[in-house]
Amino acid sequence: QVQLVESGGGLVQAGGSLRLSCAASGRAFSNYTMGWFRQAPGKEREFVAGIGRTPIYTAYYAEYADSVKGRFAISRDNAKNEWYLQMNSLKPEDTAVYYCAARLGTPLRSGYQYWGQGTRVTVSS
After folding, report:
1. How far is it between the farthest Cα atoms of the chain?
2. Rounded to 5 degrees, what are φ and ψ at 50?
3. 17-48 confidence digits (pLDDT tens)
4. Exposure class string for 66-92: b at 16+ Cβ within 10 A, else e
């Protein structure tokens, strides 16, 4: 059974940093696309970042939402079945529940099959 567990959320001041982690179990995820989404109060869940590779190319590539580009970085450790979201220069509008997700194949921004339970990030002004 696939299980994704996020950690690393919390309260941080604007301008600060947090690193979210997602630990996956149940299978090897080296061929999976891994992503991060978030849902702010009263808003729909939105794509934040994803990392994966196409069947043709062996190198991983990443995509980011425009709102976090240049501030957030996604990475993965296949040996540990983990992936991460480094969040820098945090803004109050980054406040949300963050979810990790996994899927086979692409695209990176949608179509995820597996989801974590979420971790809350609160950025104070």
Report:
1. 45
2. -150, 155
3. 999 999 999 988 888 999 999 999 999 999 99
4. eebeeebbbebeeeebbbbbebeebee
